[in-house]
Specification:
single chain; alpha/beta; Alpha/beta knot; Trp Operon Repressor, Chain A; 2 domains; 5-stranded parallel β-sheet; two-stranded antiparallel ribbon
């Protein structure tokens, strides 16, 4: 799987390739990353890739022509294999685990990391296949969203995490994860001594699995009730799940 990134700041991607769990994806070759510095595709001595917006207003707009040349270079090197061009923008649709899973099972993508006030709309209309956003806030550029997507995809690739690890993570079945505990069994805190829930020490695997499911339902219902509705619509809630959810409303 290969991702090509068009960016003004390729140096931001180095640590992600060298540190932590994601390094395994790059070292194994499961994930290939090619960085395309946009200024190398400018056509003047100043390596200009932006200009003032027509109609006036603050900031600068990324020019379409350097982006066209960069994208053409990417496509030549990829041999014409069709992959989506992803633009990170506050106006894009929210990045979800469903997006991540689709990317993790596909051939990759070209990631456009915009800066300044944005990209000439004509380039977006002609070339961009998908616009994604991390949330309802504005960042300095698309590099951080690109890194988030790469990190999330890398974790799903074979050999990076155990399959069981990501199968039980938040959003894998439309629910948030419940709480986790480790040693010591009793922890002194400012609120007093707090013990690990006894069921986790019981060794009864079926009861532990049921407790974890209930905690996931409890947390999701309290914090993200729309995810409960989505899981219900997709047929992912059992009769036992529904009975537990009804008990929370008593």
């Amino acid at each position: 799987m290969r991702f090509d990134v068009i960016t003004l700041f390729p140096e931001l991607f180095g640590p992600h390739q060298r540190v932590g769990i994601t390094r395994r994806a790059y070292d194994s070759g499961a994930l290939e990353l090619k960085l395309w510095p946009l200024r190398e595709h400018a056509d003047d001595a100043y390596r200009r890739v932006d200009d003032r917006p027509f109609g006036g207003g603050p900031g600068m707009v990324m020019l379409a022509e350097p982006l066209q040349r960069a994208l053409a270079a990417v496509r030549r090197e990829r041999g014409g294999a069709p992959v989506p061009l992803v633009h990170f923008s506050p106006s894009g649709e929210p990045l979800t685990q469903a997006h991540v899973e689709r990317f993790a099972s596909g051939p990759g993508a070209v990631l456009l990391c915009a800066r300044y006030e944005g990209v000439d709309q004509r380039f977006i209309d002609a070339e961009v296949d998908l616009e994604l956003s991390l949330g309802d806030y504005v960042l300095s550029g698309g590099e951080l969203p690109a890194l988030v997507l790469l990190d999330a995809v890398a974790r799903l690739l074979p050999g990076v995490l155990s399959e069981a690890s990501h199968q039980h993570e938040s959003f894998s079945d439309d629910l948030l994860e419940g709480p986790h505990y480790s040693r010591p069994e009793v922890l002194a805190t400012a609120a007093g001594a707090q013990a690990v829930p006894p069921v986790l020490l019981s060794g009864h695997h079926a009861e532990i699995a049921r407790w974890r499911r209930e905690q996931a339902l409890r947390v999701t219902a309290a914090r993200r009730p729309e995810l409960i509705a989505r899981a219900r619509a997709r047929g992912r809630l059992s009769a036992q799940d529904e009975a537990f959810l009804r008990s929370l409303q008593l």
